[in-house]
Request: fold
Amino acid sequence: MQPRMLTCVTAIAAVCTLSISIPISAAQEARQTQRYYVFNLGDPGGGNLAAAASINNIGWIAGDALQAESENLHAELWVGTPFDLGTLGGPNSVVAWPNKNNRGQIAGIAETADMNPLNEAWSCAQANFLSITNHVCFGFRWEAGVMTALPPLSGGIDSYAAGINNKGQVAGWAENGVHDPTCNNTPPVNQVLQFEAVVWGPNLGEMAQLSPLAPDPDSAATAINDKGLIVGISGLCANAAGSTSAEHAVLWENKHAPPIDLGNFDGGLAWNTPTALNNRGQVVGFGNQQGSPANSFNPIGFFWDRAHTIQPIPPIGDDKQSWAWGINEHGQVVGQSFNLITGAARAFLYENGLLTDLNALIQPNSSLQLLLANDINDAGEIVGFALDTNTNATVAFLAVPVYSGNQSFAHLGETNFYSKAATESGRRPFAGTFSRFAIDAAHSK
Reply:
């Protein structure tokens, strides 16, 4: 079994200065000697793959863990100790996107025991699970030990939950009953039904459909902030996972507003995907680079705000691709710089106009090579996945900022320091969002 992730990494301490003018806060300007202590979060599922995809301001870390002697992933929560969130009766579940909720609510995806009557693979298995099982998959909202399914639109079979805000509103996408001719229904993809961006909640049973960017037939929402701003994609049905489903990166100013095109680098062809936004309305994500072959996966990270529109976050050094995955209220951005040809990959931090390899900022005696940073909270704590050079396992990590001089965490907002008691041990690998497409792209070259 091959894990769906960007393969081997050479940890090179590199810093790349960007030529984009993005405003920074006074708090960011004061940070001059920031370093991180990195922790290995362990292997709670008993398998050899896991993920830390999200961290909120009270220190909750969410992701997934491979179960022992299987290809099944279960959504995982670390609240000082790991906790298996279970599934909706099927083999798999994960938390795959940053969750910005500090009130004990988590959004993710989970399979049910039912088989898809149209034999669809759906977004869950195509982008997040290790194998395509053709089980029905729903988005879920988890709270107080209960995983509640978030339904599809009328006539649909599947749904997908990505982000959640502090009001309990969940952003995602859901199928309806329309047999969309722009879908790719060639096995193993076999997508048949149209899907649209939706917001569930804040109360269970509430669901609002968001319109795609005209004349696109399909859309998906990936993140929502506390002010009700929503970001996502608009395009063709295609594979229901990236590619031409993401011809356009878009923003909805509320559940009832038409979407705004955030711009692109490739003329609006494929893989233009916002991944996160903060309450300041700053958006990060990735989009295909100019001149990319049609439908190919060739992303570069981006930062967007109303003042500067879309700006690239170039890769580090000799890397050819990048993508941004998380942003906090201070405008700190995390993601990955990588090269599909060589297989090199490294987690990055973007702030103060600098893109920095996180490996250059952690303790020198760590056994971890940080591959991807998936989320960052307002205390500057970062989660993602890494290669443990002691075991050759791919493990999840938590990186806690450490400041020299008289600086402290006080000005960064509330945080939970339970992680200080953790030890840098254990094993935790990861099957990353969309990483199957990165592997396919690398093998096709």
